[in-house]
Amino acid sequence: MAEPAKPKVVVVMPAYNAGQTLRMTYEELPKDTISLVILVDDGSTDATLEIARELNLHIFVHNRNYGYGANQKTCYAEALRAGADIVVMVHPDYQYDPTLVPQIIEPIVRGEADVVLGSRLKSGSALAQGMPWWKFIANRFLTRLENRAFGLSLSEYHTGYRGFRREVLETVNFTANSDSFIFDQEIIGQVVAARFRIAEIAVPTRYFPEASSASFIDSTIYGLRILSVLFWFTLNRRGIRRSRRFDSLRARYTRLP
To answer: Which pLDDT tens digit goes with each residue over 84-127?
Structure first.
């Protein structure tokens, strides 16, 4: 009996001024698991592109800084175009452990999940690993609200380490999302609305000067935008006010005459 075909795993790296950490991140990726690495540069002004070319990555370049959400839109569109079966987002700032890609994709490969989140809080050691206390408290508070809105019991929604089965990205309307950091929460709302299965694994994280980290003010704005996403998601789920953002593309097509 023939063994099932190995899925094509594409790692996407949304990059912005990641020149100091890109090489470290790439070198620790498990190359035997990954078929392709795509880097999307969002208008970097440092050596990100030069290093990406030295590493022979598959590169796409934005002509200016459009934002983290816009970067992800390009990442996922190009990964799908490249024939990915599974797409894993790995930030090139070395904050998340690149060696854990096999663990991220394992629940998807086994058919147990459609989306996998790498949670910094699942193991309970985020503070010991350097997460600022105010960020830890805000993360816990927002996660509790998100669990109530989404009807789930996850330990964290604000991670940048994520794996998606191809069908998820083909189904949710991610191009309708924001070009900012709130994209991360919008796509989770879309995944929940489309009734895909979400799993999570514990991942360690690193906090150091070269790793990107939002300021207190930026984090506060981000938190308020999360509340807005939850508000509109709840109205949509209860049928009070429909939002095309939370409609799956496939469901929309089936309603066409």
So the answer is: 999 999 999 999 999 999 999 999 999 999 999 999 888 666 66
Residue 163: which H helix or E strand, with range? strand 162-165
Question: Is the separation of the CB atoms in 40 and 15 below 8 Å?
Answer: yes
Give me the pLDDT at residue 3, please: 62
Q: How far apart are CA 134 and CA 220, in angstroms?
A: 10
Distances (CA, A) of 44 to 47, 98, 155, 217: 8, 22, 32, 23
Instruction: Using alpha carbons, select from 92, 158, 91 the residue that is nearest to residue 131.
Output: 158
3-state secondary structure of 41: strand
Reported as a single tens digit per residue, the pLDDT across 129-164 is: 666 766 778 888 999 999 999 999 999 999 999 999
Q: Helix, strand, coil: what percent of the chain each, to 5?
A: 40, 15, 45
Decide: 14 and 71 in contact? Cβ < 8 Å.
yes
Where are the alpha helices (H) located in 117-182, listed in sequence order? Answer: 133-150, 166-171
* CATH code of residue 239: 3.90.550.10
CA 13, 18, 24, 27 dihedral sign is: positive
Q: Give 165: exposed, middle or buried? Use CB within 10 Å, 0-12, 13-18, 19+.
A: buried
Beta strands in 27-140 (DSSP E): 36-42, 58-62, 86-89, 115-119
Tally of domains in the chain:
1
What's the DSSP call for residue 188? H
Domain extent at residue 47: 9-252
